[in-house]
Amino acid sequence: MPKLRWGIIGTGRIAYTFARALGESQTGLLVAVASRELPSADAFGAEFGLAPQHCHPSYGALLSDSGVQAVYVSVLHPAHAEWTIKACDAGKHVLCEKPMGVNQWEVMAMIDAATRNDVFLMEAYMYRCHPQTERLLKMVRGGVIGAVKVVRATFSYNWPKDEQSREGRVYNNSLGGGSILDIGGYTMSMARLIAGAATGTYVAEPIDIKAVGQIGDTNVDEYTVASVRFPDGILAQLFSGVATNGDNAVQIFGTLGAITVPHPWRPDTVDDVHITLKLNDQPAQTIPIVIPVRNIYTVEADHVALHLSDRQSLRMSWSDSLNQARALDQWRDQIGLVYDSDSPTSPNAYLTLTKRPLTVDPAHRMRYAQLPHLAKPVSLLIMGCDHQRSYGHASLLFDAFFSQGGTAFDTAYFFSLGLPERYLGDWMRNRGNRDRCVVIAKGAHTPDCDPESMTRQLLETLARLQTDHVDAYLLHRDNPVYPVSAFVEVLNQHVTAGRIRGPIGVSNWSIARYEEANAWARDHGLRGFDALSNYYGLARMVTPLWPGTVGSTDRESTEWLERTQTPMLAWSSQARGFFVPGRARLAEVAEGDLLRAFCAEDNFTRLDRPI
Fold first, then answer.
1. How would CATH label the architecture of 128-290+313-340?
2. Taking the alpha carbons of 383, 384, 388, 391 in that order, is the dihedral positive or negative?
3. Over 70: is that where the pLDDT of 590 sits?
4. In this predicted model, what pLDDT tens digit does every residue of 41-73 receive, in sequence order?
5. Where are the alpha helices (DSSP H) in 466-565?
6. What are the φ/ψ torsions at residue 260 (nearest 5 degrees)?
7. Would the pLDDT of 584 be above 70?
8. What does residue 157 show for φ and ψ, rounded to 5 degrees?
9. What CATH number belongs to 4-126?
């Protein structure tokens, strides 16, 4: 069987380690290397016998090398996402060194690239592929120590902190330094693995994470401890550090005894690989581990080759990597660790994740409509700016949406304390594309649903968005205490002032009240409402999702919309995922929005209808 032909991006210490491992592999062969500087690539190639033409002076050149089938991404943490995505786009299979991304949003984009290009992708937690880990999981699943209650996992080292090391990756914030991303991920991934084995799944996800840490003068975590709660009452204590030593071990405590793994991360560095089992009131037992292949990175490389056709591996699946990144994000949040790259004003904030210019894919399938008083095309899909948790999250979503022809962005003063509006403003500034975006803003949400509050909120929205106008503006709620004239007049004032340069409208208003407002506007020579934004989704809304919301899916409302040709800027058009397989059935027995708003016989009849 032909060997898998590997190329390595990067020439750091871990790249040399992996290259040596490939020399012992039965399935893989190193054929190319890339560095940012040709002498470094040549020196690497000379050590491993590579032909000069396969020692590349740039990472992109390696991706163009037709002799390379799989790529090991070994560059610094902040570059993992860029070069993994580019490798996937080049049709290469990818083993990405841990952590897969600096945050969960990068991992999300990397998985999307692997899916889109139909290539293998795995995060390189090499211990997951080792026989010792398999034996450990078998013991836990078999109930050898009874019900697992506590997991303790540690990984640390004491890296010198001198002037030179401050510029290196360990202590450098801009390079993704600190202990959590470097080695804390091992402890979290092991705890998730053990908790999964103890609860009948492959991995389990944290219910809660609490942590403390020491952030040094270079703004990275030098050491930190996390306490994690998993399902079934399992607790984990995790310790990682780059400025202090530890025992680098894993212990699992259960109702019948305890398991100790003295060398969980690099068992290939010791001659006596074993697990210690101590049952209650019995002497400790030493369980030797038989290792057919000594080098742990060789085991990892061979594992990749065996699972290429699966496109992902159970040892570290895509969902596993995404949830791992989410857990590390929570750990970082707990101790207040923020990377420079998280900021919308960082030096590279104007760049996309892949450093490519933001362009619209000519093969996109987006469709468009025109709204009254607005020349810009409005994409029929509208990006909701309401749930983005960080600028990094927002910029990735907005980039993807824009690249697929998306032009319209829906914001509201009320959403998430204004953060999504700030993210959208930062993104448009960094991408320089404000004139190509349709910004639909909303204000005057209950309890501040009055003309004066609307004006105040619009001005603040413009400041958040870093623009002098919005392309459309909607009142977020109705307040019958005020006559329709009050709202029509204030909206017209802002149209005249140039702050609203497109349609004006309302959200969650009755059709009767909408018509009353437009009749008053006609009688007084003012612009009336141009658009309505009510619930108009795939399922009938039985009761309002939130207080004050209005649905228009009934036949009478639909006929009115068709007759008047009033644009409907529908919210929750997919009924909050009611028709996602399994989601609605779960809602029958669970409290929440779906149960309250959509669980009705006619909706379930539609759900059960064959497509």
1. 2-Layer Sandwich (3.30)
2. positive
3. no
4. 999 999 999 999 999 999 999 999 999 999 999
5. 484-496, 511-523, 555-564
6. -120, 130
7. no
8. -155, 165
9. 3.40.50.720
- Break the chain into its structural domains and give their ranges: 4-126, 128-290+313-340, 368-608
Size of the chain, expressed as the number of residues it contains: 611
Would you state the pLDDT for residue 122?
Answer: 99
Residue 471 has pLDDT above 80, yes or no: yes
| Burial class for 590, CB neighbours closer than 10 Å (0-12, 13-18, 19+) | exposed
State the Cα–Cα distance between residues 321 and 317, nearest whole angstrom.
6
Please answer whether residues 369 and 380 qualify as being in contact, where contact means their C-beta atoms are separated by less than 8 angstroms. yes
φ, ψ of residue 225 in degrees (nearest 5): -130, 135
Are 144 and 259 contacting, i.e. CB atoms less than 8 angstroms apart?
A: yes
Q: Which residues pair with 277 in a beta bridge?
A: 259, 285
* Token pair of 221 as six digits: 């975590």
Q: Reduced to 3 states, what is the DSSP secondary structure of residue 99?
A: coil
Residue 585 CA to residue 591 CA, distance in Å, equals: 12
Averaged over 282-295, what is the pLDDT? 92
The answer to whether residues 126 and 315 touch, using CB atoms and an 8 Å cutoff, is no
Q: Tokens for 398? A: 């907005």
**Two tokens at 154?**
């540690």
Q: Facing residues of 422 across strands?
A: none
- In degrees and rounded to multiples of 5, residue 584 shows phi and psi of -70, -40
Look at the block and give the residue holding tokens 């039985």.
542
Residue 45 tokens, joined: 């190639």
Residue 293 carries which side chain, given as an amino acid letter? V
Query: Residue 309 and residue 217: Cα distance in Å, rounded?
Result: 46
109: Cβ contacts below 8 Å, ≥ 6 apart: 81, 85, 101, 353, 396, 400
495-518 confidence digits (pLDDT tens):
999 999 999 999 999 999 999 999
Global pTM reads: 0.93
* 4-126 and 368-608 agree in CATH topology: no
**What is the C-alpha to C-alpha distance for residues 228 and 238, in angstroms, rounded to an integer?**
8
**Residue partners of 552: CB distance under 8 A and separation at least 6:** 511, 532, 534, 535, 536, 558, 561, 568
DSSP string, 47-65: HHT--GGGEESSHHHHHT-
Q: Residue 5: CB partners within 8 Å, gap ≥ 6?
A: 28, 29, 31, 67, 68, 69, 70
Question: 541: closest CA among 582, 508, 498, 513?
Answer: 508
With contact defined as beta carbons under 8 Å apart, do 173 and 340 qualify? yes
What number of CA atoms fall less than 13 Å from residue 18's CA on the CB side?
31
Structure tokens at 594: 């779906």
The DSSP result for 292-323, as a single string, is SS--HHHHHHHHHHHTGGGSS-GGG-HHHHHH
Q: What is the pLDDT of residue 295?
A: 95
Asked if 235 and 227 touch (Cβ cutoff 8 Å), the reply is: yes
How far apart (Å, rounded) are the C-alpha atoms in residues 56 and 38? 6
The domain made up of 368-608 has a fold known as TIM Barrel (3.20.20)
